[in-house]
Amino acid sequence: MDTLQLLAEGFAGALTWQNLLWVLVGCLLGTAVGVMPGLGSSMAVALLLPITFSLEPTAAFIMFSGVYFGGLFGDSTMGILMNTPGQASAIASTFEGHKMALSGRAAQALATAAIGAFVGGFVASIVVVFLAPALADFSTRFGPAEFFALAVFAFAATSSVVTDNAVKGLAALFIGLGIAVIGVDGVSGAPRFTFDSPNLFDGISLVTVTVAVLALGEVIYVACLERHITGGAIIRPSGRPWLSRRELKEAAPAWARGTAIGLPFGVVPAGGSEIPTFLAYGLEKRLDARRRHPMFGKGAIRGLAAPEAAGNSTTGMAMGALLALGLPISATAAIMLAAFRQYGLQPGPLLFERAPDLVWALLASFFIAMIVLLILNLPFAMLWAKLLLIPRPYLYAGITLFCALGIYATSGSTFDLLMLLGVGVVGFLMRAVDFPLAPLIIGMVLGPLAETSLRDAAMSANGDFSVLVQGPITLTLYALLLLVLGFAVRSRIVARKRRELVDA
């Protein structure tokens, strides 16, 4: 009952006209960047991060959550109409969604995606409302050793499980950790990797790194590799932008199964919604093969419904894990964690105690964002597709300008602009050689937490590092990590054997 009362108070805060405006702005921006290939919610949040420091924290995070959810809605529009998913999380939806569009059912495909994303996100929001406080209470049992184990779990999972090449994932992680330790050590006062430059004594700003890697690096990459932004012709939807009773009956079980698959991945740092969307698609494909008249490959509505629900349910649960545990499961969540710290807030149990108005207004805004996104995407998906008509030079020149203005506005330092350019080149090189970016961001965000926790644990045990593997929580986390790594290794071995059989 207390939870419902707190949620009601959250709705009272979220339903003010100012916060409703920021929900709408976030949903509009998220959908817009999701529609355009190469962009995504992580880039949008990174660009907005230096601009929103003048906002109240509640308004800023309500807008960020709208961008996060809206990006997934927009990604599927691109995949369905052009067979070019905006982000990796929309790849699974493209397989059957584009075939539906080719068969003259583009409007129904867009409606299936919008309703599926709404169902997944709405159910996840309900679960988060009741689960996040329990997770926050549970996290009060965490000490330095437990937080270090949690950080190690996030490092290993995001750098080796999600990426196709574990070496590249670990390399990206260590780049992020290396950037995180630059500056004066807070304990000893000794400068680290500063090259005796006073400009580096305070370290490299996380805002600068995120904007440079996710936004400026993408601009340079697109400018150098023109083929990256080419795509097919847009299929123009016609007919009814809603589903018939028969189509609803066909899609409903897939929405339910996709939502159930996506929920657990929201609290596991496995890189976001890519894995659950493929798992949901694979399950529907196996179930379809048992039917008398299989539909997969011809535009099966279940092959689109399940991944969409899985993707948004994962995103909704990811927000709960971020608020309750301070655990980011994707690059976008990592940037939002950095935003909390920029406002002097630390997600976890203390956040629920020190800023309950912010937490519950943010949780209430999830429900509002789902309804707003359904209204924006169900009848107006084709209008969003017209954003693809914006000339690429103008679009990416504008992004570059916002990068520079945002960084200069927060620091007023020419050195930070040069750092923006330098890290942006690093981001471009990582894209060019297919290095993942999420481990870098998560390494930089969680690196200070891991270092501080390691020191505190060692000091509390008089230098006995065995304290790091003692206690039920730490042992459980390491056991889960071994299971996740074992599952990833097994999956890759099976995939390699299948490729060898096909080649033979």
TrEMBL record:
Pfam families: TctA. The chain crosses the membrane at residues 20-39, 46-69, 109-135, 147-163, 169-188, 200-223, 317-340, 360-382, 394-410, 467-489. Residues 20-442 form the DUF112 domain. The keyword Cytoplasm does not apply. It comes from the Bacteria. Keywords: Membrane, Transmembrane, Transmembrane helix. This is Tripartite tricarboxylate transporter permease. It comes from Leucobacter chromiisoli. The lineage of its organism: Bacteria, Bacillati, Actinomycetota, Actinomycetes, Micrococcales.
